[in-house]
Each structure stands twice: as structure tokens, then as C-alpha cells.
Amino acid sequence: MLADKTDILIAGAGIIGLTVARELIACGYDEIVIIEKEPELGLHASGRNSGVLHAGIYYSPDSLKAKMCLKGNFLMKAYCKEKGLPILEKGKVIVARDDAELPALDELYRRATANGAKVEIIDEKQLEEIEPNAKTTGKALYSHYTAQVDPKAVLQSIRKELAGSGKVKIVTNCRLKGLVGTSTAVTTRGKIAFSRFINSAGAHCDLVAQAFGYGYNYRLIPFKGIYRKLKKTAPYSVNGNIYPVPDIRNPFLGVHFTRSVHGDVYLGPTAIPAFGRENYGIFTGIDSEGLSIVLSDIVLFCLNSQFRTVAVSEPRKYDSSFFFR
């Protein structure tokens, strides 16, 4: 049942919403409600990722992302070890397919060192010792701090911790519908008054922000990532992570190999323009907003060369022959 009022109301019970609530408890807050539109946790981004803890390699050194990525890496590792959750610390190699990618590899090294990440340039022999099945052109970048965790295990652990505190209530099947004034939320399970509101609504965060009168200049452009699982009988395997040199003009890191904490090896994800915020299948998850998203994609395709490149190359990866070689 939804409470009539709360000090802090959080929209979204993904990893951001739960960890923010956990930190608020540590800061002395004791009246927190988290609303989640789904019947259970982890059905979207927080449960649909590879579990890689990145290490501040890709981001510009003057960005908040660079600072928070590395700090978050250390904090999440410490949490998993404290709670006995699975973690795999084998690092990551970034390999170059040809000489043309070497300047970008050097730029990643520059950014990583400026951000405080532990990285080194390694040669082909050193690469073979770390990842025997990886190949590169001349040199590669090795990130020591990159690791893997089990995202769903982390979610359930934090959820259990919050429930045990007696200070946080998580309400599922509870979708935010709108506001009454500036301090009462209208949900599918009733109204709730709040003193402070935190938006951690994932792929719907722009809509939530706009309900409060903010962020009208921003719009989420959805992309979907497809993964493939390496067969146990494959003649090769991966120890940690093997990544390509990305196009640093884009936010996508390219299809890569990742070994999970449970020993499975996954290839992915792609970055295919999607027709819905939850368009995980080919046609599933497309709602009334789909037409608006398609029109936005068409405009981007015509005006933005980077989007056009992604939109042309990525959908081909539905075909495994375009996935990797």
C-alpha cells in the first residue's frame, strides 16, 4: 500500500534509485518511499546489462562522468566484497584492428591516466599472456581496474538491506502519472505527498523531469543492445573483457567480449536505434510514442552523420555474420 506522505519520494527502483536511498539513510534520512512501475526489480537497464564496472577510461578528464565512474568502480567493488557478492577482477584489454585506430587508442590512454585509472600500453606478447585469444595491431591498452559483477545480485542485496533498515518502502506496480501542485505525486496506486523528489526513472527520466517543468530541451533517443552467448564448446574463451577501439565521437563502446561472474562469455551489445523505450524485441515494446520516435530518428538520420553511420551499420548485426570476426 502507498503511504499518504513521505519525506523523500524516489521514482525508479533500479540501481540508481536503490543506491541513492541507501546513501540517504547513511546521511540520516529515515522516511523514504521508492515507487517502481514494474512488478519486480531489474526488468530494464539495471537488470539488462553486462555487469561491467568501468574504470574511467573513455570520458573527458574535465567531466563529472570521469570522476564518478572511477569512484563508483571502487565503491561497488567494496560493496560486493563486503556483502560476499560475486565479482571478477580480470581487467580489460582494448585492441586495435588496424593502424588507423592507434591514435584513438593513445587518446584513451591519455584520458585514462588523467582520470586516475590504472592503465598501461602493452605489446602483442603481453596481450597474449592476458587474453590468449585476442589479437591487436602493434599494441593494446590494458585496464587493471575494470571488473564484472552480477547486477541482479547487487539489486537484490541492496533491496534486502533497505527493507531491513525499516526506513525505506519500495512500492511495485506503481507508475507515476502526474503531479498535483509541486509536492504531491499521482500514481496508479494513489496519491502521495512528498518534501523532496528524486528522479531515477531510467529510460523515462526525461518524461518525469518534464512533468516537473524541467528538461524540455532534452529527449531520450532509445537504442537497443543485442547480446550473443558464446557456446561452452567454442574453441576459444575469454578471461575478462576484450573491447575494440571505439569511435570516440559516439557514446557506444562497440561489440565486445565479456566473461560474466558465472563463467559465461557474452558478445555485445549492439547499439541499434529502437522504436520504443522498452523495445527489446523486434516488435515488442513499441507503444503510441513509437511514431514520434521514428520521426525523430528520421530527422537525426538526415542531419547527423554520426547517427546516420550507427543507424546504417548496427541493424545489420541482427545477422551473426556481421556481429564479430
Question: Can you describe this structure?
Answer:
The structure is a single chain. The protein is of the alpha+beta class. 30% of the residues lie in helices and 22% in strands. The chain contains eight helices and 18 strands. The strands form four sheets. It has a seven-stranded mixed beta sheet, with helices on both faces. Strands 9-2-1-12-11-10 form a six-stranded mixed beta sheet. The longest helix has 20 residues, at 64-83. The radius of gyration is 21 Å and the shape is globular. The N and C termini lie far apart (52 Å). The model has no long low-confidence stretch (mean pLDDT 90).
List the helices and strands and how they pair.
Elements: E1 5-11, H1 15-26, E2 32-35, E3 52-53, H2 64-83, E4 87-88, E5 92-95, H3 102-115, E6 119-123, H4 124-130, E7 139-143, E8 147-149, H5 151-165, E9 168-171, E10 176-180, E11 184-187, E12 190-199, H6 205-211, E13 223-224, E14 228-229, E15 241-244, E16 256-259, E17 265-268, E18 272-273, H7 290-303, H8 305-313
Helix pairs in contact: 1-5, 7-8
